[in-house]
Amino acid sequence: MQVWEAVDVLPTRYCKPISISVSSDGISRAEMRREETPHMENWTVELSRYSFAPGKSTDLLSFVFSIKFKTGVSEMVEALKHMTDYFFLQQSHCDVQFCFPNDEQPIKAHVKILSSRSSVFAAMFQHDMQESKTGHVLIEDTERDIFYQLLHYIYSGRTWTSLTEGIAQKLLLAADKYNVTQLAKECTSFLISNIQWESAVDSMIWAHVHSIGQVKEAALDVVVKNGKQICPLDAWERLSINYPHLCLETTRRMMA
User: Fold this and answer.
1) DSSP β-bridge partners for residue 185
2) Same domain for 90 and 17?
3) Which residues fall in a coiled-coil region (predicted)?
4) pTM, whole model, 2 decimals?
């Protein structure tokens, strides 16, 4: 497997400074001037002159430089958008097809792109695997719409639609299954930041069942902090009946 260095991904021509400032006292700053020649680029600035009495020791001068770079982010985002549209949304030049039960419409994709973003897909498409030989993969444990969101994220770095709690939960499970770590982190962060006390018990149960530790702890904290309002709810009764060990854990946390 080839390991790409940062310079391979972002050539140095996209990392030129667009502004440089310098400070000698940590407070005031002077903007440097850019002077470009055909063969080099210079940045200059005029600072107050410093004079030192002969024979007297003086602390060394310190200068702090602040540099802003042009990284070409907007250009790369636009290029990525066009690539996503051409390769994924238009399903162009695909070499693998994901099929679903009940004759749902297949989703086509590209083996190399998926393999570069997911170790699970990379293993799936090894030469001696059945999926590699047939070019067809049957997906039975992930809904088609969720799998589409997963692939869209792999191609573009963003989901096809805005996240909701239901989508984020299903997408987190899919991201974990196919080892798309950044998507899993985003779904986890979304779920944690959107926990409401009215539905915190259900969120805690879901996270407990699927072993999503961070979401479970966040939901548990909300339940503990809002115990007086939550205990009379039907959700608390379901928790005590169907998940007695989790209910005991929550009760002990409340009493601590």
Assistant:
1) none
2) no
3) none
4) 0.69
